[in-house]
Amino acid sequence: MEIDWANTPGAYYAIAYWLGCWQVILNGPRKRTWKSTIFGMVILGVIITTLMTVTHGSAQWLFAPFMTMFFIMMWATVYLECQYDAKTSLYFTARAFIVGEFIGSLEWEIFYFVVRYLQGKHIFIVNIILLVVVDGLLFLGLNALEKRNRNVNKQLRITMRELCSAAIITLAIFSVSNISFVIRDSVVGASYLQELFMIRTLVDLGGVAILYAYHVQLGELNTRFEVERLRDMLDMQYHNYEMLEQSIAAVNQKYHDLKYQIAVLKSESDSENSIAYLNQMEQEIKSYEAQNKTGNKVLDTILTGKTLYCQNNWIEITSVVDGKALDFMSAVDISTLFGNMLDNAIESVSKIEKKEKRLIHLAVTQQKNFLRIRMENCYEEKLRFEDGLPKTTKEDQRYHGFGLKSIQNTAKKYGGSVTIHAENGWFELRILIPLSDMIKS
């Protein structure tokens, strides 16, 4: 039977699209277990291969609706399997779609070349061998390239503007590479077919390259944005520390003045009621003695400010801190580290309705040659972890989660590590920093 070379079998592209989806899922943040993912991908492979085989050779006016249906199936799979929102899933589906276009067109072109010019025998066997070898090698190569972007893929959140740009590129590449379906009646010779296949494959390859370069650019912009946000957060925490230091200095001055004035008034007063009133005033202003004397001036300032805030918001905060163990750290790093830790804990317990459960505890100790920092607080939210960090529950994830990243970066700066554990309503953050190198320096 004569092969209709101008019309690539639907099964070829079905397998290629399926491989494109696999590439996205393997290098993205998955929602489900591997068992569930494999089962879902098998279902997708069977459905899309069956439909594309059945619809192969349909009227040209059905081509666009069918391709739209196949694209939606791919998008639904990516959305269900990966922790992406709708826009980000559409973006990665567009990339998988063009990857599928390239794999399908190149494999069919190679098969055409083998059969027509090398006089290949046993066409069916040659077809199967080429399908497995070509598709397998292309998938492995493209997947190895995509692995470099795995960290970016897990954090990337696509905006509507970025999605529109990717959609325009995808539609342009797909339209140009499939123009042969519109002018298929003009295909009359083998030499023209060879040129047509070459053009279509090169266009698809160009589409893969353009979308990959666009993706790398988005990753670099996202990384740059994250660095700037972390830098802004560091500056903000240090600025807050400086403001706290000035405010607490003023409060201390007033506190000492009031203590002196009350002492003078008590010595001059003869009325028991006056003395009782002055004693009450003395007890009330002792709230200003919430200052923590840890042995580190910077941490004292931060803890005092946070403690006063907690007193005014029905939050109980306790601490056991050896501030002298932090002498090797810069003031900026101390304010960044403990400012973010305390802010995160306060934000978490503030969401708890029962005031008696708004508990925070901070411990800083030196054990042998290690600095150990432990922050504990109650929580009631459902937490999901990704790469060892709790995933933010806020809708706009691009602007959140930087507090923990800043804590990680500060700990890593001193060769330390951060571990997080959440269980039975208690959230625990531990930081371990080796002190041997710090002591030598």
What does this molecule look like?
Helix 2 runs antiparallel to helix 3 (63-81) and helix 4 packs parallel to helix 7 (160-177). This protein folds into two domains: 10-228, no CATH class; 291-440, Heat Shock Protein 90 (2-Layer Sandwich), CATH 3.30.565. The termini are far apart. It has a five-stranded mixed sheet. Strand 6 (417-423) and strand 7 form a beta hairpin. It is 64% helix and 10% strand. It is elongated. The chain has helices at residues 10-26, 34-54, 63-81, 86-117, 123-147, 150-155, 160-177, 190-268, 272-285, 297-312, 331-350, 402-413, 436-440, and strands at residues 316-321, 359-367, 370-378, 384-386, 389-391, 417-423, 426-434. With 441 residues, the protein is α+β, with helices and mostly antiparallel strands. The chain is built from 13 helices and seven strands.
Structural class: alpha+beta
If you average the pLDDT, what whole number results?
80
Identify low-pLDDT runs.
Answer: 186-190
Round the Cα radius of gyration to an integer and report it. 32 Å
- What is the CA–CA distance across the termini? 81 Å
Q: Spell out the helices and strands N to C.
A: HHHHHHHHHHEHEEEEHEEH
What is the number of E strands?
7
Portion of residues in helices?
A: 55-70%
Query: Tally the helices: what do you get?
Result: 13
Biggest sheet: strands, sense, closure? 5 strands, mixed
Number of domains: 2
**Shape annotation:** elongated
The amount of beta strand, in percent, is 5-15%
| Order of neighbouring strands in the sheet with most strands | 1-2-3-7-6
